[in-house]
Structures are given as structure tokens and as C-alpha cells.
Specification:
This is Cof-like hydrolase. One of its GO terms (cellular component) is cytosol. Keywords: Hydrolase. InterPro entries: Cof, HAD-like_sf, HAD-SF_hydro_IIB, HAD_sf. By secondary structure, the protein is an alpha/beta fold. It folds into 2 domains: 154 residues, Rossmann fold (3-Layer(aba) Sandwich); 101 residues, Hypothetical Protein, Haloacid Dehalogenase-like Hydrolase, Chain: A, domain 2 (2-Layer Sandwich), CATH 3.30.1240. The protein has 9 helices and 14 strands. The strands form 2 sheets. Strands 5-4-3-2-1-12-13-14 form an 8-stranded mixed β-sheet. A 6-stranded mixed β-sheet has the order 8-7-6-9-11-10. A hairpin with a 2-residue loop joins strand 6 and strand 7. It starts with 6 loop residues before the first strand and ends with a helix. The mean pLDDT is 89.
Length: 269
């Protein structure tokens, strides 16, 4: 199969993982088979590095994840951040101040290579325990470590209204993404997206976009889906993703990525 992909890039939540956040045995098995066939597999996710550790046993020796919408390249097995692309601290302070003026009840958190920094008012996903090494303090008191992703959420505004307001306030100073977490504005430095990080990682491996398949489900996956040689939307994907994808596979709960990769392996025999 001359046009077989050399790299598979897949989002996690809502795409590779089932709706309960688990990785099915079928999916774990086919990921291993794909790598044995000489095809690179890369997770490309909005999750911070610390949320990849819970998947380490499920993915075995799998090596690389692009995390926080492109801010970090993470070695899953070694539990080590390889590279990071962060904000200039003055810009973080400016964006925080401007968002506070526009939305007085906004609360912030910051994902850094060393872990989470969060304000006491910032709401947490109950499915993930706040790590013991997290720093609880005002975002204005951030230390000098680079911020990979700034998180912002309003206590009172509706999800769409807040995201629209946050996007307008941030403007072209940074990139605002939405990965499906209700009303959470995920803000990365300008030019930091899943697509940019994936392009850099692929180039490091000597692989062009035409030999990459990318799978996703939410608007933050759109740049990656557009960049890849073949962009796949799972059947449960957001309308924006389905509109730009080259192909559609079954839903995450039907192991759509695994189904597609099984067919790929059969065609390569």
C-alpha cells in the first residue's frame, strides 16, 4: 500500500477514548499493532501532561504525546516534558487583567511543565484529582516558569457567551481554543496549536503532511484535521470538525479509530 500513512495522530477525549474516559482493549491492541507495522502513533490532546500519566499503563511503551493543545511534547513512558512552547509573562498578565475587566467573576489556572497553578475559585473537573504538587495562588502571583496554557472560566456567564467574550478580548495576542470542557477558554500563545506542534514533530521524523492521518472531534482539532494528508472526524464530532474532515469513521464509543486502523492494517497485508 504505497500511500499508507507513516504517522497516526489522534485526539484522546471524545475521539480515541470512550465517553467514560477509558481506552478499550480493542483500541489498545490495534495501537500496538500499528506501531509494530512501523507506523508512528502520536496522541495530540488538550490534556495537560499530568493527565496522561493515568493512561501510561494502558498505552504500554508508547512514546509521545502532544499536550495542552500543542504547548508541550511529553514522553508518556518517562513522564517527562521534552519541549514546551509558552507565554511571555507580561502578556499573561495583560490578558488576565483585560479578561477580569470584561468578566469580573472570571477565575484562572495555568498549566506549566511542572504542573498546575490555580486560583481557589477555579472550578475543577471532578474526574481528575488536583495533584499534591499543584500551587493554589492568585494567577497574578505566577512565578517565572513558562505558562503553556492559560485556562479561564466564568462562574455566571453561559458557555457560548463567555467563550465569545474571551475570544474577543484576547484578539490576536494569543490563540483561544475549545476542546469540549463546558465554558472553559483554553488560551495558548499565538501560533501554538495542535497542528503546529504536530507539523514540527512530523518534520523531526522526516514525515510530510501527506503521510499523516489525523483523528479528532472538537473545534481545537480543526487545524490538525486540515493540515493532515487525511483528516478523520469521528461520527460524534462537532459540526465544525465534520465540515473540514476528509473522511468520517464510527464514533468514539464504537471504537471508530480502532475500526479504521484495523482496516488499514488489513490493506497493508
Amino acid at each position: 500500500m504505497d500511500d499508507a500513512p507513516r504517522l497516526i495522530a489522534t485526539d484522546l477525549d471524545g475521539t480515541l477514548l470512550r465517553s467514560d474516559g477509558t481506552l478499550s482493549h480493542r483500541t489498545a491492541a490495534v495501537l500496538g499493532a500499528v506501531e509494530e507495522a512501523g507506523i508512528e502513533v502520536v496522541f495530540v490532546t488538550a490534556r495537560p501532561p499530568r493527565w496522561l500519566d493515568e493512561l501510561a499503563s494502558a498505552v504500554g511503551g508508547h512514546g509521545t504525546a502532544i499536550c495542552a493543545n500543542g504547548a508541550f511534547v511529553y514522553d508518556v513512558a518517562a513522564r517527562r516534558v521534552r519541549t514546551s512552547s509558552g507565554f511571555e509573562h507580561g502578556l499573561v498578565r495583560d490578558i488576565v487583567a483585560d479578561l477580569r475587566r470584561a468578566v469580573p467573576d472570571v477565575a484562572f489556572a495555568a498549566e506549566r511543565g511542572s504542573g498546575l497553578w490555580f486560583e481557589s475559585e477555579f472550578p475543577h473537573d471532578p474526574s481528575h484529582v488536583v495533584p499534591g504538587d499543584a500551587v493554589e495562588a492568585a494567577i497574578d502571583d505566577l512565578d517565572d516558569e513558562a505558562v503553556g496554557k492559560l485556562l479561564a472560566k466564568s462562574a455566571t456567564l453561559g458557555d457560548d457567551e463567555f467563550l465569545e467574550r474571551a475570544t474577543a478580548v484576547v484578539g490576536d495576542r494569543a490563540h483561544v481554543a475549545f476542546s469540549g470542557a463546558g465554558g472553559l477558554a483554553e488560551i495558548n500563545a499565538a501560533g501554538v496549536t495542535k497542528a503546529v506542534a504536530l507539523e514540527r514533530w512530523s518534520a523531526r521524523l522526516g514525515i510530510g503532511a501527506e503521510r499523516v492521518w489525523a483523528f479528532g472531534d472538537m473545534p481545537n482539532d480543526v487545524p490538525m484535521i486540515r493540515w493532515a494528508g487525511v483528516g478523520w472526524a469521528v461520527a460524534n464530532a462537532h459540526a465544525e470538525v465534520r465540515a473540514v474532515a476528509d473522511r468520517v469513521c464510527p464514533s468514539n464509543d464504537d471504537d471508530g479509530v480502532a475500526v479504521t486502523l484495523e482496516r488499514l492494517l488489513q490493506q497493508m497485508v
